[in-house]
Amino acid sequence: MANVTLRNVRKTYAGGFEAIKGIDFEVGDGQFCVLVGPSGCGKSTLLRMVAGLETITGGEIDIGGRVVNQIEPADRDIAMVFQNYALYPHMSVYNNMAYGLRNRGMAEAEIKTRVEEAARILELGAMLDRKPRQLSGGQRQRVAMGRAIVRQPKVFLFDEPLSNLDAKLRIAMRVEIRKLQRRLSTTSIYVTHDQLEAMTLADILVVMNGGQVEQIGNPLEIYQKPATTFVASFIGAPPMNLMPLRSDELKSQLTGDIRASAAGILGIRPEDFVISNERGAGGVALGLTVEAIERVGAETFVYGTRQKEEQGVAATPGELPPGEIIVRIPGAVGPAIGERIRVVAAGDKLHLFTADGRKRVG
Amino acid sequence: MEKSTVFNNRLLPYLLLLPQLVITVVFFYWPASQAIWQSFLREDAFGLVSEFVGLENYQALFAQPEYYRSMLTTVIFSTLVAALSLSIALLFATQADKNLKAAPAYKTLMIWPYAVAPAVAGVLWFFMFQPSLGMLSRPLRGMGLDWNPLLNENHAMILVVMAAVWKQISYNFLFFLAGLQAIPRSVLEAGAIDGARPLRRFWTITFPLLSPTTFFLLVVNIVYVFFDTFGIIDAVTGGGPAGATTTMVYKVYADGRLGGDLGGSAAQSVILMIIVIALTAIQFRYVERKVQY
Amino acid sequence: MVEHRPFTDFIAYAILTLGVFIVAFPVYLALIASTHDAATVVGGHMPASPGSQTLENYYRAVFVGGSRTSREPVANMLINSFVSAIGIALGKIFISILSAYAVVYFRFPFRKTAFWIIFITLMLPVEVRIYPTYKVVADLKMLDTYAGLILPLIASATGTLLFRQFFMTVPDELLEASRIDGAGPFRFFWDTLLPLSITTIAALFVIQFIYGWNQYLWPLLITTKDSMQTIVIGIKKMLVTSDELAEWQLAMATAVLAMLPPVAVVIFMQRLFVRGLVQTEK
Q: Does residue C195 belong to any structural domain of this protein?
């Protein structure tokens, strides 16, 4: 059981490339922290620095009150679950879990107790004698988890552990990981590029981009109040609609404080639109031509183009073509393709960012 | 390609490298540099006195008609062996690549001569074509041919080529078959739908797609003919008759051992080294483009 | 595929059968010759079917040796061949797996240099440096010893390249997981890398066993005593006297015995053999 604290952590490669540009955050004892971001944002590198698999070129990483910068991975009291599981292919399931304990000189009797306990929790009891290649993807994943929990470490590190599973299994394992972590209440750091996984697992969510932290906080808070346009479009699917406040059509509708920052970017989530002709006080109304419709049963996504729109905002990822707006409406009934509709959003559902997208203003 | 995670020990990697480096230096670099050094020396008949003579050994070598002859012999020998063993092996491999029930059994039956030592292969072929008792010499004589590889230079060359080809077919067969099996069926099926008949399909689709394998085998075969056929030549003809089957490698051996001309032999070694390095360099220039087996 | 007709299949079978015949014929003749008495073989009218002298020929070849040529019995040569072939194969595996481990899993000054020093040896077959190597071995007092037969032949880059190539395919995460599990370089090598390399080791062993068994020029030079001869050299020396007088039936029996171990290895370990051949020649 331990806190993990990162203080101005940096990683610069020999070639001068700055992979991690100074990161600070703290994961409290027993908390589940998720690092999320697009590929290449540095999240895996950061996790591997916590594990001791990458050197730290600046700042400090502190696990349980001890700075671990110069400590070997084996001595950091961490356990890691790898994306490809990294099971020892020539060892049985039992030996895969027992290996780390044997290397630490633990008595065989104690090893047996621990491995069997882990196998019971993970329902691997019948498979202890099998080799990894005889297991299904989900079972391998559980062995990788088992190898981590038998160690009873201070911290669990997960490097995209679910990305090699199919969609259905991924959801099942996601729930299992969360239950397991609650039960063991071991501090955990989890890396993923999947925002849904991030939202559902995290106590603390760290959104990363380009080697920097974009926003840290409770997942719902981040969803409701994204700090930057990057976070706004990365968290939530489909992404938030972002519109530059250049056209008079939009500007004229805004009132009060929001109107003052006239050069910013306006964001509205797809589900915050309603198809209606009635614009509420402080709200925004848009005229759209319907281009495409996706009906997924419980809800319907309407893709429309704004009339008289000049230019969109460059926002990666999940970026929409300039002028395109997504609207999410409940149920399966919606407008027809080619139809002209009017959508409105209430005043308290508007997000406003500075023109460079780096700061939230309202 | 490099590992991203490594160990940090300082001394250990050197200890791990030590056995191989010691053996390599003692048995490779030291003798190779000795060969280069010796090629500039002349020793007296007893090996007691040696003097530095510069390029004299090389000059003497290139003044020798025998040396040019050994070069020519090597070229003829290499060309014949490489061309014959490659084309015969390709013929067999294309047949074995057909979807036959017995293809795996044929594969096994084709590849085992790889394991026969070149010298033993030479002995087997010599036994068949030995002028007085060879099983196959009699029919040749019956046809009015005065077959005698011990005396006739062309006959000797033919015999050595046959033994060398026989030994090399299995190797070429194996690689051609692997190369053929790596060609996606769908490409050939597309060719068939485009109206190409089997033979045309072979020359317009299969053969071009096989060219990396062919090129690789060509280089390997030339190196094989240069060095590994030593045993065959020594067992069958001993370089004779009258030097007709003395290749460059055989001459290095013969001049150094029988003639005792170590300086001249060393100069020949150096020239051979240059040829091998050139061949290997060619091979590695193309190795990147080569199909992965 | 498309044109899968009885006729094309028949042609293919015919060509392949011809191929097998060409490949097998010289060996078949050797087998036949090894079952007849000397007079039948030398007379030049040897029948195409086995004779009655099989046991006697092989017994004489293995335990007695030829009478006219007064050579060593083959039993002793077989032992020499086995010792040197296995020595070459194991020696090569031992030094090359260690050097490949160093080159792949460590970073140290002169790493690239060390790799190139080993790599360049690919280009220098023993034949081109034969006399200087002979002199080194002679100076080290290793003529007529197993060390002299083995050591100069194990120094080559093929094994190192093969293991390097295999190690590169081992996922990095296995090393990372091992380090987190508390394994150092020795443990990782012994517990993880070596067990994973078993197939590669076996394939290399098969190829190098055949290579070592079939050596000719090198043993010819450095063995002066008959008691140190390998079987491949032995056959040649049986014939060197004067071919008419040579005891061909014994020479052919010896040839059969010389082919047997490596050919058996190829046939019974075909998968490993093919794998080893394809990988070492890359």
A: yes
Interface test with C, best of A77, A97, A102, A154 (most C CBs within 10 A): A102
CA distance A60 to A5: 8
Name the range with the highest mean pLDDT among A48-52, A303-307, B261-265, C44-48. Answer: A48-52
Q: Do A88 and C182 touch (CB under 8 A)?
A: no
Residue C19 lies in a domain: no
Beta bridge partners of A293: A302
Phi-psi region of C258 (alpha: psi -120 to 50; beta: other; left: phi over 0): alpha
**Beta carbons of A74 and C196 less than 8 Å apart:** no
Give pLDDT tens digits for B147-196. Answer: 787 888 888 899 999 999 999 999 999 999 988 988 887 787 777 777 67
B182-B183-B186-B190 Cα dihedral, nearest 10 degrees? 180
User: Is 70 exceeded by the pLDDT of residue B290?
Assistant: no
Sign of CA dihedral A74, A76, A81, A84: negative
Q: Matching CATH topology for A4-229 and A239-353?
A: no
- List, for residues C161-177, the tens digit of each pLDDT value: 889 989 998 998 999 99
Q: Dump pLDDT digits (tens) for A242-255.
A: 888 765 566 666 66
Overall number of domains in chain C: 1
In chain C, residues with a C-beta closer than 8 Å to the C-beta of B249 are: 127-128
Q: What's the domain range around C81?
A: 67-282
On whether residue B11 sits in a domain, the answer given is: no
Task: Using the predicted structure, report yes or no on whether residue C89 has a pLDDT greater than 90.
Answer: yes
A55 Cα distance to chain centroid = 24
Side chain identity at B27, as an amino acid letter? F
For residue C270, tell me if it sits in a domain: yes
Q: What is the mean pLDDT of residues A40-52?
A: 92
Q: Which of C97, C106, C257 to mutate to test the interface with B (most CBs of B within 10 A)?
A: C106
Q: Looking at the domain assignment, is residue B129 inside a domain?
A: yes
Q: Which residues of C touch A104 (CB under 8 A)?
A: 182
Supply the CATH number for residue B252's domain.
1.10.3720.10
What is residue B292's predicted lDDT score, i.e. its pLDDT? 36
CB-side exposure of C247: number of CA atoms within 13 Å?
Answer: 20
Please determine, looking at this structure, whether the domain spanning A4-229 carries the CATH number 3.10.350.10: no
CATH number for position C249: 1.10.3720.10
From the list C170, C159, C115, C167, the residue with the least C-alpha distance to C281 is: C159
Write down the H helix ranges in A206-327.
219-224, 229-234, 248-251, 256-260
Domain boundaries, chain A: 4-229, 239-353
Comparing A151-160, C54-63, C223-232, the range with the smallest average pLDDT is: C54-63
Interface ipTM: 0.86
CATH topology of domain A239-353: OB fold (Dihydrolipoamide Acetyltransferase, E2P) (2.40.50)
Give the C-alpha separation, B21 to C95, whole Å: 9
CA distances A43 to A156, A157, A232, C61, Å, are: 15, 12, 18, 73
Tokens (6 digits) for A264: 């910013």
C222 domain-assigned: yes
d(CA B118, CA C256): 14
Dist CA B218 CA A218 (whole Å): 66
* pLDDT of residue C81 exceeding 90: yes
Between chains, do B116 and C259 touch, taking CB under 8 Å as contact? yes
pLDDT digit string, tens, across residues B37-82: 888 887 766 666 677 887 888 888 888 888 899 999 999 999 999 9
> Has residue A47 got a pLDDT over 90?
yes
pLDDT mean over C234-246: 67
Neighboring chains of A (3 or more beta-carbon pairs < 8 A): C
Find residue A344's DSSP bridge partners: A274, A285
The confidence score (pLDDT) of residue C82 equals: 94
Residue contact C181–A74, C-beta within 8 A: yes
